[in-house]
TrEMBL record, chain B:
This is D-ala-D-ala transporter subunit. One of its GO terms (biological process) is protein transport. Keywords: Cell membrane, Membrane, Peptide transport, Protein transport, Transmembrane, Transmembrane helix, Transport. Belongs to the binding-protein-dependent transport system permease family. It comes from Devosia elaeis. The keyword Repressor does not apply. GO terms for cellular component: plasma membrane.
Length: 357, 298
């Protein structure tokens, strides 16, 4: 094992570095340009995917037995008779002005649909990331401290198991065991059907809304339904958090200041938690922020299994009926969330890491 | 092209590519977890090769008098809602899984290598443009982008494979670029350039072979993700279509019966879990066998 000295670039080289080719911290102006270019690229990508489909967007709207005239009308209204570059600029203009079109399935504007389903997913993902980080960070530290001992190996297998499970399958097994057999948790949905519609809160976050309304039955029902999917999502995201925590922690433990701390008589516990761990906090924030975005991926699958009325289910429902406009808007939003999280972790870095000032 | 500098290169290059791989293999077998991963993968390959011999029933023959039979007796893992033998379907599913991994890997490797080495070697505007495109692809979680591609192309196994390939080349490109940057200014590249070799020739003959070992390891690491994404697409009904015995699709159809007939979803799920765990354990061992800092890249 080589002792890493200098540690010139302590930043995690993951998705987080993607706005910074070369790994150096860029000027603010350069970063804004970089974000804009990435956003533009995102639009080009969603536009290209949306147009290259063999599926007919007009048929999806007018149905199979529409007359030729209706077909032509919709065709022209969608602007499909215009040159491709004109279509792109029209799309660009629509996106900039916040016009994402109307979803075929609900008849509502796509963006208001998404705003409506988003709280359910955010509630799920937030619970999941708390569980994932709460599990992953301590495990990562323990693994690093006990490097190559049995604890390290057990933690490795445990976290890789979480990373290897097909989450839709684990969701089903969880339902079979904890819902059908043991009856410990609620089944699918955000709450028991008995309570649906009782609380219509200002935020859309069921736990918060039911607290505001003071309705404890709804609160417990919601919590009961949330705990299983959130735990499974959290477990699956803890693998990456554990691995990165272990790796950051090993970097620190190999440095001379740790030896110095031990030599001057500081306890093992204090050396680990008050010296080494303090130095990796900033890096961990980045990792947790990125994992939070990654949860959207698991959410698509877990929401299908648990009939969770969130963003993931909205995306798959529209996929299955071939509403490309709604699908591409969802994809675009995921991309924007990802870029936003990257920028956020970058900002956190600037604020918390004195070396970047 | 037969001067002293170049003459011994091919032999030494080949040796330099194989010797570390043997070392890595020795290292892997010493760790119980990666040895387990290797064993499972070897078993998977053997099962796929001998699937028709080992299968007790035809995977697609329905028997409506014999539906939803629990495991045991004539049917090792029971039967599904159409009376098909689950054990035999799982066995034939190994071929689909390996097929997906193989096709994705042979597509992703060359694309990633080409983008990465060209960006890294030529630099300048090529580097900026190619890496910008890579970054845009990286700004989506893999499954979401794959969903978008399958939605556009239409649901089928082949389209799922294309979609997965289209979404998994960017990490390879980043790795190949980083490797290329470390070789770009070395003396042997300068020597080749002075002899008048074209950029294409330098990339193909001097840079790509040097990137191959690390790219191949990164591809192995990628395989667990490929399996899970393919199974996820199959589960959502966007990948392999029935009656194909793809594991994710088997779980999707078994879902309706899961509360009464647990074996419909349990066995395909355990298969996916085992194989993806095996690739993850192997990848983890590979990462440790090489410089850990270098391989932390996602």
């Amino acid at each position: 094992m080589t002792i890493s000295t200098g540690n010139a670039s302590p930043r995690p080289v993951g998705l987080g570095s993607f706005l910074r080719p070369g790994g150096r911290v860029r000027s603010l102006g350069g970063q804004v340009v970089s974000i804009l270019v990435t956003l533009f690229g995102l639009l080009v990508l969603t536009f290209v995917i949306g147009r290259m489909m063999p599926a007919d967007p007009v048929r999806a709207i007018v149905g199979e037995d529409a007359t030729q005239d209706t077909y032509r009308m919709v065709y022209e209204r969608l602007g499909l008779d215009r040159p491709i570059w004109e279509q792109f600029f029209r799309y660009l203009g629509d996106v900039v002005t916040g016009n994402f079109g109307v979803a075929i399935r609900t008849g509502q504007p796509v963006i208001s649909d998404i705003l409506h389903v988003m709280p359910a997913t955010i509630e799920l993902a937030t619970f999941a990331i708390v569980i994932g980080a709460g599990l992953g960070i301590p495990l990562g530290v323990i693994a690093a401290v006990n490097r190559d001992k049995w604890a390290d190996n057990v933690i490795r297998v445990f976290s890789l198991l979480g990373h290897s499970m097909p989450i839709f399958w684990t969701g089903m097994i969880g339902l079979i065991i904890f819902y059908a057999s043991l009856g410990w948790v609620g089944g699918s949905g955000r709450m028991s059907s008995f309570y649906i519609g009782l609380v219509r809160g200002p935020t859309g976050f069921l736990l918060i809304d039911s607290l505001i309304a003071g309705d404890w039955n709804v609160f417990w029902s919601a919590l009961n339904h949330l705990i299983l999917p959130a735990s499974l999502l959290g477990y699956s995201s803890s693998a990456y958090i554990t691995r990165m925590t272990r790796s950051f922690m090993l970097d620190q433990l190999n440095q001379e200041y740790v030896t110095t701390a031990r030599v001057k008589g500081l306890s093992r516990h204090d050396t680990i938690w008050k010296h080494a761990f303090v130095n990796i906090r900033v890096q961990l924030v980045t990792i947790v922020a990125l994992s939070y975005g990654g949860l959207l991926e698991g959410a698509v699958l877990i929401e299908t299994v648990f009939a969770w009325p969130g963003f993931g289910q909205y995306l798959t429902n529209n996929l299955l009926i071939g509403d490309m406009n709604a699908v591409m808007t969802c994809v675009l939003i995921v991309g924007v969330i990802f870029i936003g999280l990257n920028v956020l972790s970058d900002v956190l870095y600037r604020v918390f890491d004195p070396r970047t000032r | 092209m037969t001067d002293i500098v170049n003459a011994p290169k091919p032999a030494s290059r080949r040796r330099s590519a194989i010797a570390p791989l043997l070392n890595v293999l020795r290292f892997l077998l010493r760790s119980p977890t990666s040895a387990f991963g290797l064993a499972v993968i070897a078993l998977l390959v053997l099962l796929a090769i001998f699937a028709p011999l080992l299968a007790t029933h035809d995977p697609n023959v329905q028997n409506l008098n014999n539906v939803l039979q629990p495991p045991g007796g004539n049917h090792l893992f029971g039967t599904d809602e159409l009376g098909r033998d689950i054990f035999s379907r799982l066995l034939h599913g190994t071929r689909i899984t390996l097929n997906i991994i193989f096709l994705v890997t042979i597509t992703v490797g060359p694309i990633g290598l080409a983008v990465g080495t060209i960006a890294g070697y030529l630099g300048g505007i090529f580097d900026t443009i190619l890496m910008r495109i890579t970054d845009i692809f990286l700004s989506f979680p893999g499954l979401i982008l794959a969903l978008a591609f399958v939605a556009a192309l239409g649901p089928s196994l082949n389209n799922a494979i294309i979609a997965i390939a289209l979404t998994s080349w960017p990490p390879i490109a980043r790795l190949a670029r980083a490797e290329t940057l470390t070789f770009r200014s070395s003396d042997y590249i300068a020597a080749a350039r002075l002899q008048g070799a074209s950029p294409f020739r330098i990339i193909m003959h001097s840079i790509v072979p040097m990137c191959l070992p690390s790219v191949m390891i990164r591809l192995t690491l990628n395989m667990a993700t490929v399996i899970l994404t393919a199974a996820g697409l199959g589960f959502l009904g966007l990948g392999a279509q029935p009656p194909m015995p793809e594991w994710g699709a088997m779980i999707a159809t078994g879902r309706r019966y899961m509360l009464d007939s647990w074996w419909l979803v349990t066995f395909p799920g355990v298969s996916i879990l085992l194989v993806s765990l095996a690739f993850n354990l192997l990848g983890d061992g590979l990462r440790d066998a090489l410089d850990p800092k270098q391989m932390n890249r996602r």
